[in-house]
């Protein structure tokens, strides 16, 4: 449990965001949420509750129908130009890694810093090597991603997102596609990040991680935030019937 | 792996030779049956006139054919890429226009498109038969190429587009550095067969009086009555040209694969 970071200013502020898919399914119903600078917020909830949609709306892969999304106090909705410029400020880590298979591990990390941030090649490479060291893959810079294990690929993907030095990191079930023995190595890196004071919004099915790694826990169901608070409180004393049902299902 | 590939190539080559031999035999028999008098001795002069030391009509025609193919290929690539991008990324208007172009081209004969381009558009905008042929051929092959590109781009995993988007890569960078490199090996074989179609279709330019290989051969045949010799000769030239293209394609593919 981290402490003393709850005082940071708001990094992401969502107010009443709603999203209905073309099929007519309302995936988000007036969701409001604030993630403060340096905070790690964890999101749990049953399948189909809108967790991925929430992240995708924040990073711009989906348009919201209504509501407001602010990043560092700046409104992103209805501002295509600003929205576009802010894309690299929202570092996304996907369940399926989505590494670029035709590039080496190092090139995966340097492409966007060079092309988007205008970094010099040497500068981008030295930063990339630092990040690879941090995720424990310093010796894998020249390899192709496909030659690495799932856990290593996800750590590369994490480093790739970090290389853009985003204001906030978004994780969409980063360990769900991994073999059980590799989950720990990815969570360990995420824990380090959280401890260093990165701002993170993490969708996870890892209950152990949800219990102790975040500053705040959010429980979503059917497109709504049903409960929000400290993780221990949620797990010991869920306030709603829906949360109790969910916990019964996953804990026993 | 390599050995079996070589064996396959050898078998294909042998198949070609046998087919060509049988075809030749058939033609020879046919000519014999109609009492055709062969006269191959006059053919070399159609390539090069040694007396006056200048190119004969067939070499000149081949030159025009090559120029026609080169320009058409360039324009085809551009049109194919632009149309595919318009359909994928353009708004409804651009995508609709691209679709309209595609449907018109795919559902009318190339021969008609050539004539319309030359006799109508050529007259209105005042361009020569050569450029009309380049335009018509490019519009035709470009439509098919755009479908090749489009299916290739769509075949790349959605996650690649999403990762590129989230890293802030621009659309040109996403295409040039992420999508195209991943689809190129997949696109290459259909692009090679498109080039071969282009080489063959270029013969249709003879119908709008572009003095390329086929047109020269037809005129010569009308003049000299050496139809069998001339048709066989240019068939051989087109065949060689396309075998060359295939070989070039295979070479580049190996290069591409190693990237
Ligand atoms: N592109 C889409 N088109 C239509 N419906 C969609 C689309 N994406 C998601 N949905 C629907 O929206 C709802 C929320 O989906 P979402 O992926 O956000 O759930 P989730 O909480 O991430 O679930 P999971 O734990 O299975 O990943 C689901 O009912 C889903 O079927
Ligand atoms: Mg999800």
Task: Walk me through the structure.
The complex is a heterodimer of chains A (252) and B (259). With 252 residues, chain A is α/β, with parallel strands linked by helices. Chain A is 37% helix and 24% strand. Chain A has helices spanning 51-59, 80-85, 105-115, 121-134, 150-162, 180-195, 207-212, 231-236, 241-251, and strands at residues 10-20, 26-36, 40-44, 66-71, 74-75, 90-93, 168-172, 200-203, 216-221, 224-229. In chain A, the strands form two sheets. In chain A, strands 6-7-8-3-9-10 form a six-stranded mixed β-sheet, sandwiched between helices. The radius of gyration of chain A is 18 Å and the shape is globular. The model of chain A is unreliable at 1-5 (pLDDT under 50). The mean pLDDT of chain B is 89. In chain B, helix 6 packs across helix 8, helix 8 runs antiparallel to helix 10 (227-258) and helix 9 runs antiparallel to helix 10. Chain B is 81% helix and 2% strand. The longest helix of chain B has 33 residues, at 57-89. Chain B has a single domain (56-258), classed as MetI-like fold, CATH 1.10.3720.10. The two termini of chain B are 20 Å apart. With 259 residues, chain B is mostly helical. Chain B has a two-stranded antiparallel sheet. The interface between A and B is medium-sized, with 24 and 16 residues. Residues 51-52, 172-173 of chain A line the site of magnesium ion (MG).
Number of helices of chain A: 9
Bound molecules: adenosine-5'-triphosphate, magnesium ion
Which residues of chain B sit in consecutive blocks of at least 5 with pLDDT less than 50? none
- Please give the order of strands in the largest beta sheet of chain B: 1-2
Q: Provide the β-strand percentage band of chain A.
A: 15-25%
Q: CATH homologous superfamily of chain B?
A: MetI-like
In N-to-C order, the SSE pattern of chain B is HHEEHHHHHHHH
Gyration radius of chain A, rounded: 18 Å
Overall 3D form of chain B: globular
What's the rounded overall pLDDT mean of chain A?
A: 92
Quaternary state of the chains? heterodimer
Helicity range of chain B: over 70%
**C-alpha geometry of chain A:** globular
């Amino acid at each position: 449990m981290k402490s003393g970071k709850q005082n940071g200013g708001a990094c992401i502020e969502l107010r009443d965001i709603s999203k209905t898919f073309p099929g007519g399914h309302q995936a988000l119903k007036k969701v409001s949420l604030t993630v403060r600078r340096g905070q790690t917020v964890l999101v749990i909830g049953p399948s189909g509750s809108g967790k991925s949609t929430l992240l995708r709306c924040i990073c711009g892969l989906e348009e919201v129908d209504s509501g407001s999304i602010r990043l560092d106090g700046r409104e992103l909705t209805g501002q295509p130009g600003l929205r576009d410029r802010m894309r690299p400020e929202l570092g996304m880590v996907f369940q399926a890694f989505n590494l670029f298979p035709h590039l080496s591990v190092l090139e995966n990390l340097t492409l966007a810093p060079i092309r988007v941030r205008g970094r010099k090649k040497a500068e981008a490479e030295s930063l990339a090597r630092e990040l690879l060291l941090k995720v424990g893959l310093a010796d894998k810079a020249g390899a192709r991603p496909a030659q690495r294990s799932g856990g290593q690929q996800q750590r590369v993907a994490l480093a790739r997102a970090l290389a853009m030095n985003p204001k906030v990191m978004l994780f969409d079930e980063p360990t769900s596609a991994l073999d059980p023995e590799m989950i720990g190595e990815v969570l360990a890196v995420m824990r380090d990040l959280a401890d260093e004071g990165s701002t993170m919004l993490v969708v996870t099915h890892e209950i152990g991680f949800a219990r102790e790694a975040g500053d705040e826990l959010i429980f979503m169901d059917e497109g709504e935030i049903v409960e929000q608070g400290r993780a221990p409180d949620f797990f010991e004393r869920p306030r709603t019937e829906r949360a109790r049902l969910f916990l019964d299902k996953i804990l026993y | 792996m390599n050995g079996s590939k070589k064996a396959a190539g050898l078998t294909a080559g042998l198949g070609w030779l046998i087919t060509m031999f049988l075809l030749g035999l058939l033609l020879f028999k046919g000519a014999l049956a109609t009492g055709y008098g062969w006269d191959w001795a006059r053919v070399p002069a159609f390539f090069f006139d040694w007396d006056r030391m200048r190119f004969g009509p067939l070499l000149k025609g081949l030159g025009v054919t090559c120029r026609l193919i080169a320009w058409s290929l360039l324009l085809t690539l551009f049109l194919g890429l632009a149309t595919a991008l318009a359909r994928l990324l353009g708004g409804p208007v651009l995508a609709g226009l691209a679709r309209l172009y595609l449907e018109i081209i795919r559902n009318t004969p190339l021969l008609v498109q050539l004539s319309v381009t030359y006799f109508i558009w050529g007259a209105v905008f005042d361009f020569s038969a050569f450029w009309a042929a380049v335009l018509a051929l490019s519009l035709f092959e470009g439509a098919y190429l755009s479908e090749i590109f489009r299916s290739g781009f769509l075949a790349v995993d959605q996650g690649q587009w999403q990762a590129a988007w989230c890293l802030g890569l621009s659309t040109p960078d996403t295409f040039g550095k992420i999508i195209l490199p991943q689809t190129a090996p997949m696109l290459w074989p259909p692009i090679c067969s498109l080039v071969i179609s282009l080489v063959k279709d270029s013969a249709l330019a003879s119908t709008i009086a572009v003095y390329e290989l086929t047109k020269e051969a037809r005129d010569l045949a009308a003049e000299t009555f050496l139809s069998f010799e001339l048709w066989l000769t240019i068939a051989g030239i087109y065949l060689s040209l396309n075998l060359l293209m295939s070989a070039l394609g295979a070479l580049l593919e190996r290069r591409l694969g190693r990237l």
